Amino acid sequence: MTKDNYPSYPGGDYHPENDDNPQNPYGSGAPGYGAPGDPYGSAAGYAGAAATPVAGGNRLVQGDGKTRAMESISYGFRAVFASPLAWIVSALGVGILSMLAFGVTFAAMFSRMSADGAFDPETGATPDPNDYQMSPLLMIFFLVIMVVAQVMFANAALKAADGRKITFGDFYGGPNFGKAIVFVVIVNLIVSALPYLLPGALQVILNAAMVFLGPLYMLMYLYVLDQGASFGDAVKRGFKAGTRNYLSLLGFSIVWGIIIIISAIPLGLGMIITMPAYMAALAYVYRQASGGIYPED
């Protein structure tokens, strides 16, 4: 079995998927998880056992390679409300930065339009079409905010999947944080550029089809962030997990997309809860698909 570099269990460094003893796949015991003959003790997660509660669930279990998209909905919100201050304040901060970026963009756009002159029905004068385009520097700034925020929230979501309550320090740092940012930038550039490599009609079709392609690459960067996988290995394993769980992940994307759109109706305020919940849910299905640990009721 592949050795996966998952974060430590609370109280120890034991991971069943990394055990080298085929006769005893559960190891010889981990600190805080029972006696050597029974490494999980009474919190093993077996039916009827008294599980020790963890943030977001009642026990830690190991994924079997299959995702359960509908379970992720309740888990995502449980994870956020298990550590509401860190999740909601961080989401609010990202929202404010995003609004500032949009504000600066539109201010620059209207400034250029004003300099060129507004539409005049008598002369037919119109602003330069380039005035409606986002400045390359502002576009890069906005992209950086979105990518860094994505990796930060994924970083915290993976900690939550270990059964931990989240603090502000869980959003950044770790040996794979910068590597994951680079990977996400590369994937975003490729995905964004693909439609423009095709003729006009095919561009529209590919843009519409992106929601159906999402399950094939949506988990890739989590292999980099969580396990330090090489870019090539992350692509291979993420694609394999995506094809194996395609319909489940497609349903995940559609349902969470609807939830986020509805939450954006009240001035976008609901998104300070639904966006963190989505990231927690994504880490949840990733751990299921990759055979990692995650909290379960």
From TrEMBL:
Stretches that traverse the bilayer: 85-110, 137-158, 179-198, 204-225, 246-273
Region (Disordered): 1-34
Keywords: Membrane, Transmembrane, Transmembrane helix
Superkingdom of the source species: Bacteria
Name of the protein in question: DUF975 family protein
